Amino acid sequence: MNQNHSEEELMEAVREQEEINQAIAMSLQEDQSQLISGPDNISDKLKQAHHERMQRKGLQTPASEDRSQGLQVQNDVFNSVDIESQHNGIENIASNPLQEIRELRREVQEGNDRIEQIQRKRQCDLYMNIGAIVIVLLHGNQDCGIPIQSWLLFYFGIQFAQLGSAHILDKMEDIPYFNTRRGLKKCSKIAMMVVIEGSQCIWIIYGNMIFNDSNQCFEKLPILSYCMLALLIIGYFQLVLYGIIVAILLCLFIGQCQKNQRKQIGSVKILRSLAKTKYNYQLFSDAEECAICWNNYSEQEEIVKLKCNEKHLYHSSCIESWIKAGNNSCPMCREPINKEVTI
Ligand SMILES: [Zn+2]
Ligand SMILES: [Zn+2]
Predict the structure, then answer these.
(1) 315 CA distance to ligand 1 centroid (A)?
(2) Quick one: pLDDT at residue 294?
(3) What is the pLDDT of residue 322?
(4) Residue 90's pLDDT is what?
(5) What is the pLDDT of residue 99?
(6) Sheet arrangement for strand 276-278
(7) pLDDT at 102
(8) Which of 66, 205, 214, 289 is the most exposed, fewest CB within 10 Å of its CB?
(9) Which CATH code is given to the segment(s) 274-324?
């Protein structure tokens, strides 16, 4: 599961680098003399690439209007180019974009290295699976009391499915339909992962049930028996890890449910303790409007007067909604509405 997650992150990083690479390629087409005489063009392209990168990360680069108002980000390299150019002349502008290009080239190279690393690992896994299946098939159809060969073949079949799903997910990146629907892409990834990892867990449990070290398999099929034993041991660790993750998620879920339940019970207690009355202009002349909805009170309208201050009145329905939302404090002064209840 962690492997899939890290691969996904790596692929995202690589896609970013490819886009940056395109910006560099466009910039490099500019003549060197143009770089010195009119660097605004290349600087703008790099700014654009940087801006897009920041947007993807959920950050905002300051707009030019904001800069004029003094809202500058000190660490923004591109903005610093503009500021320095006013003091140090045009040479600084020419050198900084070149430095940026070198930096971006290095990032692209790192991205390409990561892709190669992933591809090498997948190839290695593929060859190992093929080799393992060949070894199992070479043993023929020998019976030792448990279906050890069938178990191993199905296990390696699941491994193939895992590699195949990673390949399918890569191909999905090239389909525009999926690129515009990030939610669908994410759901497909999760569904594939759950199906494959779930099948593997079930198969490990089944293997554990049928495997018996006192039978004659270790004598008749020693290589396959030790192979199955090793895979079961690895599988146990995997199951324990998944068990811990599920237990943590379950604890968090139960904790959240209990918290919500406590809130609900507390809200009911607070609602029961509210002192409701009818609005009367002579009695409440200092408070004419509800601080929650900002509407004026009508004569004989049902209101609630809190204990914190006799001027802190609210419409009955307004303060009830406020309490049901999980609050136990006066909206105006933040004093507890009911000091005996904690929610
Ligand atoms: Zn109100
Ligand atoms: Zn109050």
Answers:
(1) 4
(2) 93
(3) 94
(4) 45
(5) 84
(6) 276-278, 302-305, 313-315
(7) 87
(8) 214
(9) 3.30.40.10
C-alpha 275 – ligand 2 centre gap (Å): 14
How many A from CA of 310 to the centre of ligand 2? 8
Cα–Cα dist 16/98, whole Å: 20
User: How far, in Å, is the centroid of ligand 1 from the Cα of 264?
Assistant: 22
Distance from Cα 274 to the centre of ligand 2, integer Å: 13
* CA 290 to centroid of ligand 1, rounded, Å: 5
Instruction: Name the closest ligand to CA 336.
Output: 2
Mean pLDDT by 10 residues, the chain (343 residues): 54 68 58 43 50 51 40 40 45 65 90 90 89 85 82 91 85 76 82 90 91 75 88 92 94 94 92 92 87 92 91 93 92 92 81
User: For residue 286, how far is its CA from the centre of ligand 2 (angstroms)?
Assistant: 14
What is the pLDDT at residue 11? 67
Interval between CA 331 and ligand 1 midpoint (Å): 11
Q: Which ligand is nearest to the CA of 298?
A: 1
Ligand sitting nearest the alpha carbon of 305: 2
Residue 241 CA to ligand 1 centre (angstroms): 52
- Tell me the ipTM for this assembly: 0.94
Closest ligand relative to 292 C-alpha: 1
Q: How far is the CA of 306 from the centre of ligand 2 (A)?
A: 6
